[in-house]
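Take our chain:
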Amino acid sequence: MSYSQILTHPGASHKDEFLACCVLLAHHPVPIVRREPVADDLADAAIAVLDVGGIHDPACGNFDHHQFPKDHPPQCSLSLVLQHLGLYEDALRFCDWLEPAEWLDTRGPNETSLWLGIGRDTLAKLNSPIDVTLLRRFASVSRLEPGQPLWEIMRWIGEDLVSYLRSLRQRLDFIAEVGEFWEIQSATGTFHVLYVPRTDPLPDEPSAGLARFIESHPDGGKIVGLVYPDRRGAGFGLARHNDHPGLDFTRIGGLDDVHFAHARGFVAKTSATTPERLRDLLERSWA
């Protein structure tokens, strides 16, 4: 379905419908109108109606959550749009801010603070002037057209979010295809690292997505280190995962094929390329 218009409610603006508009703009660069919908709007599948109207019917372009029962899982208009685009599960897993945003919109700051295990005053300290300004400016208009500064910023936000989710999914699938979990035996114990071989073409950021892949893998809890192609040379980067103290790469800093070892020991770069030598360097680094 191609939308000709995005419609959301007037008055005060919140993060959920603002971001829902942004995500839709990435796919449908059309005007945004802020007013109450009428029956014809809700019946017109070419008009996306967000966060208002009392209907959730993606086939007809309606994405409201306010009619859900009070015990419904926290989901906002952004959640519904992401579900419609097939991006919700990845967004919930890889956008750490999404679930708190759902809670804030559907449960309010008190329940959200309790759920997060923080005081409400701490929650307020996380507010950004970027959020405040964008939402205030959005609330002050009744219509946004392509070419207007706020409309263009909203499209950028949507494009970046969608691109992040889709490229991260592709990256995670790639790591799952080529990556290996290595078990390294050392004199003081056994540990596990994630190894990603050099491929042609080489990704722009060979280390991108490794931490997210480990988090999402059933055996990820075992991983303490990373081995990945060095984008600046023909060798590999060696790094701690989650700053695990068991790996200290200063222990290999004086070796001929190690051209960089950070003074704090959390990362190193080597010209070594064979799995055997990389395993040896990891074993030597284990403290």
Notes: The radius of gyration is 24 Å. The longest helix spans residues 149-178. The CA atoms of residues 192 and 223 lie 5 Å apart.
